[in-house]
Amino acid sequence: MKEQTTETTKVSQKVEKITQVREIPVIADYDVVVCGGGPSGFIAAIAAARGGASVALVERHGFLGGMATASLVAPISVFNYNDRRIIDGIPWEFIERLIDIGGAREEKPIGNITFSPEKYKLIAQRMVLEAGVSLYFHSYLTGCRKSEDGRLTHIIIDNKNGAEAITAKYFIDCTGDADLSYQAGVPMQPMKSELQPATLIFMLGGVDTDSLPMIRHSQQGINYHDIDMRKALEEINKQTKLPKFGGPWYCGVLDRGLALVNMTRTYANMADNRQATNTECLLREDVFTFVDLLTKNVPAFKDAYLVMTAPQAGTRETRRIQGVHTLTGEEYIEARDFPDAISRGCHPVDIHSSSSNNQRCEFLKDAAFIPYRCLIAQNFPNLLVGGRAFSADGISSASVRVQASAMGLGQAAGAAAALCVQTGTDVLDVDIAALRSTLIRYGANLSK
Ligand SMILES: Cc1cc2nc3c(=O)[nH]c(=O)nc-3n(C[C@H](O)[C@H](O)[C@H](O)COP(=O)(O)OP(=O)(O)OC[C@H]3O[C@@H](n4cnc5c(N)ncnc54)[C@H](O)[C@@H]3O)c2cc1C
């Protein structure tokens, strides 16, 4: 096997700095700006707009869905616990709209969602536009401006028009990597020495999807990987050193013959550009190695071929904010209820190792709660965080990071921002009773 290098981009050790002064046009003003149009971001934008706010949604890609569409992460986990819907409201409305056009199937009783990435993009964009949200696609959040009291005043985006500034009363950071919070100076959780690995998911065609094992992820308490292929890989690995792998996990996209494969992995801090670049290159090499092994070892892949790698390697873990409260694994696994609970989670604590092929998968004893205080940071009166970058330790975040719970956090952040617009309050002083009743009106399940 070809020796692989993990370093494709050489960087000068000497850091020279330049100062660039540029005039940036302020192009628009909104009540709420949401940065990042992934599962948490597009739901946050809809929730804020339905609460009466004027809303902009900024996304670096030309489509919505984040990891679900840009990284082909499937299935959407997980809406139910013991056959009871735990994540509800706008997130589930989105799934119903997707089901209506043949773009999703609920795997009962657990409520995992097998979906078509293209139909996902379509329904997400329809719902956002129907809510009256202004979309800024192909726009990279690159900076922000703060006033002396810590209040964010502008975000800076870069796109084909050059640099542009947008003002708003409230900002929601749904970038997954906490890009806006980081640029604003919000303290971050200590970076662990071993982050969960990055993975480049790929799509195979020519698959006998009727006989492919473990393609439907339906039951609670099961880790749906291909056990036979895993054993085969472990055997091969003893003779020939393979790249690191996980699973392998397979998922359909509702088209006969097509399947997504989640198995590549490497350590990377994907919030660092050079590491992200090197990771994309390394994992693309690994995909070709694994496609060859899958077609030789899995009968359902006998005639399979590579259709595509995901446009972007998937990121499981990077920065998380240090919020007013940090949700601990203990609180989460005990399913501790909070007076300011605004969303819930029911996926296992799912920690993939970056340094080995292993995974820790701990199933919950009950559906857990997430307090509002994990979405806000002390001294940042008009900033909320939705999705993966919320304030949590490595254990609780390893469950909440999945898409349904990320959507739940987005719904809460959007509703809170709209409430703040109505009342003129800081996010730190939001009326919790009013927020919870708004969320319950949206359909959220906040009761034990
Ligand atoms: C390999 C892998 C397997 C996974 N398996 C599952 C699974 O089986 N089930 C499941 O439900 N979840 C799974 N997850 C987790 C899940 O996909 C993510 O944690 C989830 O998508 C997080 O949602 P989010 O909205 O917080 O962030 P993201 O989905 O990362 O969305 C962030 C959005 O912000 C945009 N953005 C980022 N930075 C900027 C910027 N500076 N400017 C403008 N836009 C920006 C991105 O383009 C993206 O659209 C998996 C993740 C990975 C990587």
From TrEMBL:
It comes from Sphingobacterium chuzhouense. Pfam families: FAD_oxidored. InterPro entries: FAD/NAD-bd_sf (IPR036188), HdrA-like (IPR039650). PANTHER family: COB--COM HETERODISULFIDE REDUCTASE IRON-SULFUR SUBUNIT A, FERREDOXIN:COB-COM HETERODISULFIDE REDUCTASE SUBUNIT A. This is FAD-dependent oxidoreductase. It comes from the Bacteria. Keywords: 4Fe-4S, Iron, Iron-sulfur, Metal-binding, Oxidoreductase.
